[in-house]
Amino acid sequence: MARSDSAADAANPGRLKQIALTYKMTRKADKTIGLVLAGVFILILGVFLAIGFLIGHPVYLGILGFLLAFLGTAIVFGRRAERAAFGQMEGQPGAAAAVLDNIGRGWTTTPAVAMNRSQDVVHRAVGKAGIVLVAEGNPNRVKSLLAAEKKKMNRIVADVPVHDVIVGTGEGQTELKKLRTTLLKYPRVLTGPQVTATTDRLRAMGDLMSNMPLPKGPMPKGMRLPKGGKAR
Hints:
Helix content: 55-70%
Protein name: DUF4191 domain-containing protein
Structural class: alpha+beta
Strand order of the largest sheet: 1-2-3-4
Transmembrane segments: 33-53, 59-78
Number of strands: 4
Distance between the termini: 56 Å
Oligomer: single chain
Low-confidence stretches: 6-10, 207-217, 219-232
Region (Disordered): 209-232
Strand content: 5-15%
Radius of gyration: 23 Å
Number of domains: 2
Largest sheet: 4 strands, mixed
Order of helices and strands: HHHHEEEHEHHH
Keywords: Membrane, Transmembrane, Transmembrane helix
């Protein structure tokens, strides 16, 4: 029991430090975050206190209001922090891969299965919806890269649906912040064993990532493929 308590005490400073760091990062992109959070907390608490005084139970409603105000503030903070994070990542090479890495259970993602010298990249995600190819880069160049990879997928795993997504803010593109939601909306047509079998077949086939090591997260802007490098 003592060990559990000491472990929890040691974890708390780490959580508080992480929250503080997240707040600082969010505040750089969202200057009004402090006022918004304070406003949400005061508003919710004030409403419950007012109701408490009206019905003659200010203490009980005050405690309930405090708890709900804390919860509501945490939810608003989480959403605005997520929005700020996506705003900072938008347009950065490799940003889509970072989102795919956090899509959730049931998905296997492979970054940079195809790439050209201009840093246009295609990432792959495999789940119960089938195969989803996610492209990021110049819309005009990336379409041919995406089409070639989709043709290859249809040839190797013809019995599995292949979807394609181009990340961006233009017409027919998917915003980075909506990428995860887009993938989760696809109908589930494969079973667990089928997903595993598809992933194994693709791994056996090999991809660009196996031949050229890439750093995790956004790619350095100066990075270029060596001469003669071709998208697969």
